[in-house]
Amino acid sequence: MAIESNRLSEEVLKDFFSDIHPPFEYDEGAVIEANRCINCYDAPCTKLCPTHIDVPLFIKQISSGNIKGSARTIFLSNIMGTGCSKVCPVEKLCEGACVFNLLKEEPVPIAKLQRYSTEKALKEKWNLLIRKESTGKKVAVVGAGPAGLACAHELSLNGVDVTVFEKEEKPGGLMTYGIAAYKVTPEFCKEEVDYITAIGGIEIRTGITLGKDITLRELREKFDAVFLGIGVGKTRGLKIPGEELEGVVDAINFIYNLRTSDYSKVAVGDKVAVIGMGMTAIDAATQSKRLGAKEVTMIYRRSENEKPCTDSQLDIARLDGCHIIWLAAPKEIIGENGKVKKLVCNKMKLGDIDSSGRLSPVETGETFTLEVDMVIKATGQLPYEELIGKSSIRAREGKIVISENSETNIPGVFAGGDAVNGGKEVVNAVQDGKNGAKAILTYIGI
Ligand SMILES: Cc1cc2nc3c(=O)[nH]c(=O)nc-3n(C[C@H](O)[C@H](O)[C@H](O)COP(=O)(O)OP(=O)(O)OC[C@H]3O[C@@H](n4cnc5c(N)ncnc54)[C@H](O)[C@@H]3O)c2cc1C
Fold first, then answer.
1. Could you give the residue ranges of the DSSP H alpha helices within 41-185?
2. Residue predicted with more confidence, 386 or 443
3. Is the CB of 250 under 6 A from ligand 1?
């Protein structure tokens, strides 16, 4: 057993990491699917979309050949509509709400149709939303993830000059550095960011960290308002013996390496255990398998009914051949020569409902042991406590506390996205960015 890179050929890796939900091959395919939509007057799909895209309208525009209009409808509500069409867990959002589900029929493929028109807009560089003349107002946005970018775009649209400060080399946040490579490629992320900034009035300054290179006080002095869209940080620790052994890795770091280097250079074990059952855990498990791990076992302390991922996400892991062990929690990692050798787990049972509203996991007293050489921790992310904790921004459990109008306890400083909600989805971050921008526009008097 060993942790190694270069397990599969370039060709196989390219195939394994290719687009998991390919687009329509022919325009006719999109038109046929668009014509299935019955344009529900109360549009449950629109209601369930956090950005409230007018789904019946954009689909009608596709069926009538107005692709530009369709893309514009989507971007008016969600400037990251293309990215969202690739990464949104639509089975619990728009497509999950489609009335065809009630008839036990396939829902209208809303995400695929959304991708159809917006991808054309990105490729053709259609200029669909026009920026108002500059008002001379300046706003700083910290973090170039979905929340920061959506906020910057909405502000710029309304004539505000925006400077985005980003600590990484590339903008995009977790779209660029976190989400599975078979959903969004680095090339796509760049294309989407370029499309967003093409509106003008947005300068993205990468390699600049708030709290290190700049301070909130400086930003407050130089800009009319500040928006914080800094996301969340590292994976929560397991707090069990053996966590320091070589071969125990943080899912976020593992995925970050995957997104920033050639797949062939990313090392993975023969027998990998992934702890957790959220989106990050699924991405870590499926990508370990696709990198060539022989056995991947996912371990979750509750039962399938309480899992945080969706059924479709779990299906991907199952189809990739990952084993799933429900009702098990890591107890100890045993090493040999400083390297991971075994994972001891407690068998769990379900107890009373806990504060999360789900049945709680309770130890049974029985254990089992797995032979593994790599343990990937994907047990939820911790907020940037060092940054938030040290500042005067009010936070609860590391999450920034905001008022109804997205403002923090510091006047003129607004926030949104994962930094506030503790980690949801791209589409929620986009809506938070828009909400923040609207509140800022009121604050600066536009
Ligand atoms: C592994 C993984 C897989 C996921 N898969 C999906 C998925 O399939 N679908 C989905 O919808 N969602 C998914 N998510 C969740 C989604 O990525 C996030 O909800 C979304 O990116 C949050 O956007 P954000 O802008 O709030 O934060 P982020 O995307 O984290 O962006 C925050 C930005 O702020 C920057 N930053 C942080 N601190 C500083 C600082 N001090 N100074 C300057 N810049 C700073 C960061 O570098 C980053 O670019 C996934 C998340 C993870 C971790």
1. 44-48, 55-63, 67-77, 81-87, 94-97, 110-124, 146-157, 174-177
2. 443
3. no
Distance 179 CA to ligand 1 centre (A): 9
Residues forming beta bridges with residue 345, ordered by sequence position: 330, 368
Q: What is the pLDDT of residues 28-49, one digit of tens each?
A: 999 999 999 999 999 999 999 9
Of all protein residues, the one whose alpha carbon is nearest to atom 35 of ligand 1 is: 143
CA 145–ligand 1 middle distance (angstroms): 6
Specify which residues 169 forms β-bridges with: none
HSE toward the beta carbon, residue 195, CA cutoff 13 A: 28
Helix axis angle, 55-63 relative to 27-34, nearest 10°?
A: 130
The CB of 178 under 6 Å from ligand 1? The reply is: yes
Substitution candidate for ligand 1 out of 49, 174, 214 with most atoms within 8 A of CB? 174
Which SS3 state, helix, strand or coil, does residue 393 take?
coil
DSSP character at residue 133: P
Q: Please give the number of the atom of ligand 1 that sits closest to the Cα of 427.
A: 11
Rounded CA gap, 6 and 288, in Å?
12
| Ligand 1 contacts CB of residue 387 (under 6 A) | yes
384 pLDDT above the threshold of 80: no
Instruction: Give me Rg for the CA atoms of the chain.
Output: 23
258 touches ligand 1 (CB under 6 Å): no
Task: Report yes or no on whether pTM surpasses 0.90.
Answer: yes
Domains (range + CATH), the chain: 22-124 (1.10.1060.10), 138-233+382-443 (3.50.50.60), 248-377 (3.50.50.60)
pLDDT digits 0-9 by tens, 6-23: 899 999 999 999 999 889
